[in-house]
Amino acid sequence: MWLKQLMLANKIKIGVIKIYLDSENKEFNQSDFAKQSFREDNFSGFNFNNCSFKAAHLEEIKTEKTIFIECDFSGARLNASQHINSTFLNCNFSGASFFSAIFKECRLIGADLINTDLTAFKILGGDWSYVNFSHSELNNFNFSDVKLIESDFYAAQLKKTKFKNANLSRAKLTTANLTGADLREANLSEVDFTGVNFKNVKIDLFQAGIIMESMGAILDY
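The structure corresponding to this sequence follows.
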């Protein structure tokens, strides 16, 4: 009996959420959507402020021009989700899954991606400044044309990763593995390269000077 009651309660709760999404109200403040399922739902023009999506099922959702401010996505599954011109400000994605997700011209400023599964996900432009990528597996990733100002790549795996025209100013790359990475045309001003593996890294002459100066060399131009 208790199992049937629990299943009925879950169905009612999911039904209420669907009504919310279909209503004209697109403003949600401190709402709790933890562990709920939004599979294949579309979010266009929504605003979520300080909401919980902990361990929520967000597989194959689509967001467009939707804003999430200080929302908790820890442990959530965003596999194969698509996001266009959406904003995620100071959101927590620790332990979440971005498997095969696509973010096009989005702003994920201040996001925490600790222990996030970033397998096969893509970033197409946008602003990912102040993001915590530390210890992330990002080999062969493409960060071209992405803003990464002051983002933290501490001990990240960045082998053969592309940063063409990316803005890495003041980023932290301490002990990152950049073997075979392509940094050409990237903004490397004030980047912390302490302990970085530069084996086979592609850079231009101007960037070489910036890197040497960051390590304490005095260049005679």
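The chain is about 15% helix and 10% strand.
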